[in-house]
Automatic annotation (TrEMBL):
Residues 12-90 form the Alcohol dehydrogenase-like C-terminal domain. InterPro entries: ADH-like_C, MDR_fam, NAD(P)-bd_dom_sf. It comes from Linum trigynum. The lineage of its organism: Eukaryota, Viridiplantae, Streptophyta, Embryophyta, Tracheophyta. Signal peptide: none annotated. One of its GO terms (molecular function) is oxidoreductase activity, acting on the CH-CH group of donors, NAD or NADP as acceptor. It holds the Pfam family ADH_zinc_N. This is Alcohol dehydrogenase-like C-terminal domain-containing protein.
Amino acid sequence: MRGNWRKICCRYFPQGIDIYFDNVGGEMLDAALLNMRVKGRIAVCGMVSQHGVTDSGPGIRNISNVIVKRIKMQGFLQSDYLHLYPRFLDHVTAHFLAGDIVYVEDMDEGLESAPAALAGLFTGENIGKKVVRVALPLNHEIQ
């Protein structure tokens, strides 16, 4: 799925992005910054695209959108919020069951696809949560 991140963001988020949880950085963060809505929020938890990078390159080109769109961008460590986990679980479970939370899964099939799926996490090959299904559920009927 690697390619023009700006077009991909527009395809999956045509109304813009309200909240972006960034684990990648680099080109994906640049594209997200272009597609953020006014007063959007970005939680920065990782920069996996920068692992193994030996030259600094041009950096984030669209950072001015933080000002123009009044975006709040903040570093995030889950360990800072462990004490809130019980409240979080109650709150998110209710919203998830109500269908209020939307997410994208990038699904691969079979254990043999796991190495490429893992490598793709470091090169931006996926959009959303990467999942490798290694077996069908036990209650699945074989046809």
